[in-house]
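Sequence, please.
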């Protein structure tokens, strides 16, 4: 029997309950589809930091490297550890070390879920560059704490980085409805963003079957609200993609439905699957967080592993549950209730 080794990193806050819920659903899907999942759980988190002084051991990345995939709950507990420390100590090094340069985030309304918009029939796939750009971490502060303080944070856009994310997005568009929206701000940022537009135009010659349009980020924010049904695949830099995918989460009914995959398309290191919502300290101990975003991320993991039937079964189960009105309103149904309904639907 085929068996996959999965690294589970529940992390902080609601991440713990969400990974447990998703794992039970994924285990059941594996059994039904004739393969096995073997989980190794890592306690890496802000609590781990408080104990050891690091978010993960020094050889953490090397430990993860041999796994087939990583399922992560959430990282961050700002009351105890500054986000700038916890995220740069766990989530961001994983994305960068494993060259998970494509962050894929689907935005559509699940059956039975009401979004805030008049538009209901939209199906957007956001592709966010995940390893460089505005979140490269290049910069510094001098004269700290004085009136002469200076802070510099430089965006880094490389031809290799821009070309590979755009190519990935063109391929996704080709496999969907053939439309690609490339998002920049090249009217104001005249080097990096004009460069991104140039590469978009150059690559478009290789994809004559894909209709590509360049948008400015501000106009795209408006379009995602006013006319989301006109969009198919949307590709953007790290910062712009980060912001647009929270907007995407909002129009799909909330962060409880926002799934994501951090993909290494070359498959020379593991990819990581995580909900977009984060650790949600305000509701962490209430048992009311919605596991659907993590379960959906798990379905994306199944798809990435090549288990398409199991992935489809999990998505069908999710929509059977939401179509029944379970897990559709934030905070109304308990995590356990939603998880039990997912297991039953499966
Ligand atoms: C996300 C999150 C992270 C990001 C933060 C927590 C660093 O907001 O996955 O969207 O911006 O990458
Ligand atoms: Mn974000």
């Amino acid at each position: 029997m085929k068996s996959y080794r999965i690294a589970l990193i529940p992390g902080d806050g609601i991440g713990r309950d969400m990974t447990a819920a998703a794992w039970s659903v994924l285990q059941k899907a594996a059994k039904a589809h004739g393969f096995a999942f073997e989980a190794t759980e890592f306690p890496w988190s802000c609590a781990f930091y408080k104990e050891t002084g690091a978010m993960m051991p020094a050889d953490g990345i090397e430990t993860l490297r041999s796994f087939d995939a990583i399922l992560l709950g959430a990282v961050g507990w700002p009351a105890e550890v500054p986000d700038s420390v916890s995220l740069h100590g766990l989530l961001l090094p994983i994305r960068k070390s494993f060259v998970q340069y494509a962050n894929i985030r689907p935005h559509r309304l699940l059956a039975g879920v009401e979004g805030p918009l008049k538009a209901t029939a939209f199906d957007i796939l956001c592709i966010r560059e995940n390893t460089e750009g505005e979140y490269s971490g290049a910069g510094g502060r001098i004269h700290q704490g004085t009136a002469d303080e200076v802070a510099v944070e430089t965006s880094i856009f490389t031809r290799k980085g821009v070309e590979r994310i755009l190519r990935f997005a063109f391929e996704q568009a080709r496999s969907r409805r053939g439309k690609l929206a490339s998002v920049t701000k090249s009217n104001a940022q005249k080097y990096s963003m004009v460069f991104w537009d140039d590469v978009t135009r150059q690559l478009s010659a290789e994809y004559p079957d894909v209709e590509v349009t360049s948008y400015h980020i501000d106009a795209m924010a408006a379009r995602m609200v006013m006319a989301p049904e006109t969009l198919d695949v949307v590709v953007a830099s790290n910062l712009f993609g980060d912001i647009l995918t929270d907007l995407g989460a909002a129009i799909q009914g909330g962060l409880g439905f926002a799934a994501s995959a951090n993909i290494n398309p070359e498959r020379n290191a593991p990819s990581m699957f995580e909900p977009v919502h984060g650790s949600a300290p305000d509701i962490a101990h209430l048992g009311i967080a919605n596991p659907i975003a993590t379960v959906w991320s798990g379905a994306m993991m199944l798809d990435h592993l090549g288990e398409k039937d199991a992935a489809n079964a999990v998505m069908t189960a999710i929509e059977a549950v939401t179509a029944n009105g379970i897990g559709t309103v934030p905070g109304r149904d308990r995590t356990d209730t939603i998880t039990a309904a997912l297991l039953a639907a499966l």
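The mean pLDDT is 97.
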